[in-house]
């Protein structure tokens, strides 16, 4: 059974690709995995029964979950692989199919072999891994075999054995996969150059491999060995294609730190990404509580030295989301404006925003009062108000070609709908489709009544519309003498711009802003509520007009007919007997005769 903390985390997970880390009570990583959909994959650990004892034990030990979102599932696969190599969690080695994950071994021997293994042995050989995906490991090995003629046999190629001619070249030599060191056809020095290049490829130092191949290709071309140069070029292109698949951004971005920050009224969230050859190797987000309303730049300046020290970073270049004044000796810091570098900063900010969103959702579940207080404080700051908007009202007009004009007022308290306080208004003093005059009327009526009944006024009024609608509402405020006492703004649909009295330039909030989302929800709710009332009124008007056109049928009879039959169509389809039971025989015959005449014409 998942703890309450885990259940809250599961509720906030995104349905996006990424990497997840299961942690124990001491914060130690138990397991690292990738997912196409983080929410589905991570939740499955706690919603399914597990036949494997190892999986069961893992789930019992999980006390916390951390996630890193990525652009694609393939990026998640690469990041998972890098993190497993870095932290080597216990369950990543033992959990899968009761076997350890595979490693790539460069055997300690003369003319070293390169091969996969699941059983690393302490014999002085080099082991690279573990690989979370066998597919990735095989891709690396296949690339090595296509690029470099490395032997696959287990022969003891000692100088004595080769000198005595104990071995004969095999099929691998004849098809070009081996250069025959067993017969002395390839020197050990030449062979080790290929092993060194293969080692760089395994480590992910693809740029070094490409530089070596390019140098080799140019040398072959200058010596007029064009067929060999062409083969080397094909190898270069092969590495280039592999590199294009295995990087998040351009592979020329090597050994770089990326820092970004997002803030709200109370906290700042600084994300750190470590980039090597275009791939993310590490990711970490820090939450900072503001003490003196620190700016985003100040939060970055405080965090960067601490995080670099924590991760022992030696990067000479840092990409930032904000321009700061911090100076680190021999380190270049700048804010990218375009291209792959900017893409990395955006990825970092995406992770910071997700971390913040996850925290806020968790707070909303665990401590709703704290969530409400934080939201109100954020809205006060974003909308430049003197007080928190605990009570908000929003107005919207509805009419079609000037018929049945109505208006709606919806009320939000503490950021949530208070439906018992919603109000409808039928326009009384305005003739024709005049939205501005209608808005002035309903705003005046609403607050004139609240003032007369000594009811509390809202802290914020939202008008659905631009400057025209806002100015109409302000006229009502002026008549009532409450202008300046209540904050008021208009929201225009086209670009979601917010208009304030006396300010000719609208305010544009971030599309992800919680404040904008509350204002949009107010506007949409007022529109929905108003349209519903307008449709009902229009329908009733249509019913009445058609039935009241029948000679000898008055308003009271129409109401009774609609109450019994529910619609005009059912009245038309009713028999004389059915109508007689409701309105009497005389009126029933008049109704039947009227609709019969309508059908004939």
Verbal overview:
By secondary structure, the protein is of the alpha+beta class. It contains 21 helices and 18 strands. Helix 10 runs antiparallel to helix 11, helix 15 runs parallel beside helix 16 and helix 17 crosses helix 18. The radius of gyration is 37 Å and the shape is elongated. The relative contact order is 0.05.
For the secondary structure, the number of strands is 18
CATH class of the domain at 390-535: Alpha Beta
Query: What is the multimeric organization of the chains shown?
Result: single chain
Mean pLDDT: 81
CATH topology of the domain at 390-535: Nucleotidyltransferase, domain 5
Helical fraction equals: 40-55%
Quote the beta fraction.
Answer: 15-25%
How far the N terminus sits from the C terminus, by CA atoms, comes to 73 Å
The biggest beta sheet reads: 7 strands, mixed
Unreliable stretches (pLDDT < 50, length at least 5) are 93-99
User: Can you tell me the CATH architecture of the domain at 390-535?
Assistant: 2-Layer Sandwich
- Number of helical runs? 21
CATH homologous superfamily grouping of the domain at 390-535: UvrC, RNAse H endonuclease domain
Radius of gyration: 37 Å
Shape: elongated
Helix/strand/pairing class, anyone? Answer: alpha+beta
């Amino acid at each position: 059974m998942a703890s309450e903390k885990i259940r809250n985390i599961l509720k906030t997970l995104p349905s996006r690709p990424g990497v997840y880390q299961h942690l124990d009570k001491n914060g130690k990583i138990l397991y690292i995995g990738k997912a196409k959909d983080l929410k589905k994959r991570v939740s499955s650990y706690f919603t399914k029964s597990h036949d494997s004892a190892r999986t069961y034990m893992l789930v019992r030990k999980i006390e916390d979950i951390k996630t890193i979102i990525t652009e694609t599932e393939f990026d998640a696969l690469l990041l998972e692989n890098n993190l497993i190599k870095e932290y080597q969690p216990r369950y990543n080695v033992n959990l899968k199919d009761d076997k350890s994950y595979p490693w790539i071994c460069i055997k300690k021997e003369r003319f070293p072999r390169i091969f996969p293994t699941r059983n690393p042995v302490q014999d002085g050989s080099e082991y690279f891994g573990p690989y979370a995906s066998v597919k990735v490991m095989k891709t690396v090995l296949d690339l090595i075999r296509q690029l470099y003629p490395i032997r696959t046999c287990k022969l003891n190629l000692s100088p004595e054995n080769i000198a005595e001619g104990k071995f004969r070249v095999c099929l691998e030599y004849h098809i070009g996969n081996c250069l025959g060191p067993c017969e002395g056809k390839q020197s050990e020095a030449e062979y080790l150059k290929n092993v060194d290049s293969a080692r760089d490829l395994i480590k992910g130092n693809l740029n070094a491999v490409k530089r070596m191949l390019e140098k080799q290709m140019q040398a072959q071309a200058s010596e007029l060995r064009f067929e060999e140069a062409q083969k080397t070029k094909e190898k270069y292109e092969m590495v280039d294609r592999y590199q294009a698949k295995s990087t998040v951004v351009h592979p020329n971005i090597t050994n770089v730190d990326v820092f970004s920050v997002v803030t709200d009224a109370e906290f700042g969230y600084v994300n750190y990404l470590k980039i090597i050859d275009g791939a993310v190797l590490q990711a970490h987000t820090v939450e900072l509580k503001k003490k003196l309303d620190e700016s985003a730049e100040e939060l970055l300046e405080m965090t960067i030295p601490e995080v670099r020290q924590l991760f022992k970073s030696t990067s000479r270049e840092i990409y930032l989301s904000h321009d700061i004044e911090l100076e680190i000796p021999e380190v270049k810091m700048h804010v990218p404006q375009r291209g792959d570098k900017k893409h990395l900063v955006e990825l970092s900010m995406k992770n910071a925003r997700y971390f913040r969103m996850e925290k806020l959702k968790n707070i909303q579940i665990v401590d709703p009062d704290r969530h409400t207080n934080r939201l109100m404080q954020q809205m006060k700051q974003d909308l430049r108000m003197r007080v928190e908007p605990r009570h908000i009202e929003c107005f919207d007009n509805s009419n079609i070609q000037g018929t049945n004009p109505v208006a709606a007022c919806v009320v939000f308290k503490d950021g949530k709908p208070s439906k018992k306080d919603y109000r409808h208004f039928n326009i009384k003093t305005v003739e024709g489709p005049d939205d501005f005059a209608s808005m002035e009327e309903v705003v005046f009526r609403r607050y004139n009544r609240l003032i007369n009944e000594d009811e509390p006024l809202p802290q914020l009024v939202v008008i659905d519309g631009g400057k025209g609608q806002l100015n109409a509402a302000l006229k009502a405020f002026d008549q009532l003498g409450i202008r300046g006492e209540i904050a008021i703004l208009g929201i225009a649909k086209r670009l979601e711009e917010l208009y304030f009295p006396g300010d000719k330039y609208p305010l544009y909030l971030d599309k992800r802003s919680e404040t904008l989302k509350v204002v949009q929800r107010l506007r949409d709710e007022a529109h929905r509520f108003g349209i519903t009332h307008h449709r009902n009124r229009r329908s009733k008007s249509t019913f009445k007009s058609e039935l009241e056109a029948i000679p000898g049928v008055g308003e009271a009879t129409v109401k009774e007919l609609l109450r019994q039959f529910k619609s005009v169509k059912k009245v038309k389809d009713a028999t004389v007997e059915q109508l007689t039971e409701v309105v009497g025989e005389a009126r029933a015959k008049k109704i039947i005769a009227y609709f019969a005449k309508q059908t004939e014409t």
